[in-house]
Design goal:
By secondary structure, the chain is of the alpha+beta class. It has three helices and 15 strands.
Length: 210
């Protein structure tokens, strides 16, 4: 509950598996069961004594946080740990991960010009649901990925895609890059916007809350 580690084909998956095994292997774990997910798997906060495993994985940069329900103090604590991990460049937030190295282009998520909850039913006009990225320099963004905090929404940008000053990158939920596509991407109550380079390194991110 409250976190999401990389998928098996994604950057930092092996590192997250190794750290999870180191934390949990042979441990007696307490469970605060919250409910189930769409795959009927238990969602819970895991504790080893006073240590919340969910929060540890996020604060060390092995997982992303997920937007908590109102009043979920543990979920809010995990969100705070994510901000600290990102600021420190811990784990998957680092500059040299998954084959990437060197400086990261300066890119901003322009939430004020994005539309994560356009008027009307979310499914009615996917093209109206958009995220805008502003670039300080011209960048080849071929094979870069736009994603949210979940495991379900990935947009792999096509070859030849470019962005730069005066030419921002706008991605709508109707664009053919989304896999599987055909559904709204951004949660109305809050979500995490991520732009990853071709290796999976985080170039920029922004979390919004309703």
């Amino acid at each position: 509950m409250g976190m999401n580690t990389p998928e098996a084909d994604e950057c930092f998956y092996e590192e997250a598996v190794e750290r999870s095994r180191a934390l949990l292997g042979g441990a007696t774990v307490g469970l605060d069961e919250i409910g189930t997910d769409q795959f009927d798997r238990m969602l819970a906060y895991l504790w080893i004594g006073e240590q919340m495993v969910n929060r540890t994985l996020v604060e060390e940069g092995f997982a992303l946080a997920t937007t908590p329900e109102p009043g979920d103090a543990d979920g809010e604590a995990i969100i705070g740990s994510e901000a600290e991990a990102a600021g420190a460049g811990a784990g998957l937030w680092g500059l040299e991960v998954c084959g990437s190295s060197g400086p990261v282009p300066v890119v901003s998520v322009v939430l004020a010009a994005s539309h994560t909850d356009p008027p009307g039913p979310d499914e009615a006009d996917l093209a109206a649901e958009t995220i805008l990225f502003d670039f300080e320099e011209s960048v080849d963004v071929s094979e870069w990925t736009v994603r949210d905090e979940s495991s379900a929404h990935r947009c792999r940008l096509p070859g030849g895609a470019e962005a730069g000053p005066g030419s921002p990158l706008e991605v709508s939920s109707a664009d053919p890059c989304w896999q599987p596509g055909g559904s709204p991407v951004w949660n109305n109550g809050g979500d995490l916007v991520l732009l990853l380079d071709e290796h999976g390194r985080v170039v920029t991110h922004a979390r919004y809350r309703d």
